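Comment on this:
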Amino acid sequence: MNSLFKLYIKRTVLLLFIGILFSLLFIYLSYNGYAEQYDIDTWSISNMLLDYTSSCFTLNVTLELIIIYTFYMYRNKKTGIFLRQLPVKSNKDFIIKVLLSLTLIILLAAVELILFNIFTKSLISEYYNNIKAVYDAKNTVIQTLESLYTTYYSNFLMLSMLTIFISSITIFASGSMGIMGFAIAVPFILYFSFIGFLAGTTAFIRDMGITLDHSILTYFNYITLRLQRLVFEDHTHINYYITLTLLSVLMYIISYFCNKHINYSKMGQLFLFRQIKILAYIIGCIFGSFSFYFIGSTIIQPQNHLTAVLILLICFIISYTAIRKIEQIFM
């Protein structure tokens, strides 16, 4: 095996080991916190499972970002040209990186579930039986333990799939941007800017007093509702997994071609491809202008349509200028 690939594997194994240690710490904290409670009910069990799931998700995303960063941390103009001369095909190098990043997520999730079941399942079963005995005496029906675990496994799988999606976005950004710090931050930038975009759009429509056609408004509300359910509620629905799988595959495919046609002479610049630059400007200006509008309209509170339009225009200029200035720093 090529020594470069061995280095990738060693880093992946090291991060997997670190993840296992942290998951054991999470289990210990959950176990102690749960055992010290006096008023135990099914909500307490559900909350314990949710806390552990959330902690593992945060850990897995962090380790995934770290492994992707280590894959590209030494990439620059000189090393890029040098790598082209190595007896390692760039396409194969990219595929190995993707496979190792996916392997890390899958192994982490599997080990975290296994360890949690080994150390806590008997305790949870014992407490649940005690709770059930109390409620049975009152002829009160409570949520079954199987139902609690079904929700737990579903949430864990949902967040693992979300981790893969975040990984695919980061790998895409790493292959299309010349600054790794920005590439790692892209998933979070998109997430918070999209929230700001939704809030700003709502504020602008309100300030403009726009009355949408009933059919358009109904369709817009339907899309918004479906997105909310897809992200926050639809944890067991097949559409959630199909959507994230397709989006992740799309990101990996685009990343593959970016990696194949990358121009290492542009390394150190913010954008490595003109098409990605145009897309980033479009999305950045739209998301940024409405996000800034939400803030600006809250402060100024426009009293007429002209003021609202002027605020939005100023916010658009600010967004474009900010992106342009950041890009110029790395030219």
User: Anything to note?
Assistant: The chain has a mean pLDDT of 82. The longest helix spans residues 90-137. Residues 123 and 209 are 57 Å apart (CA to CA).
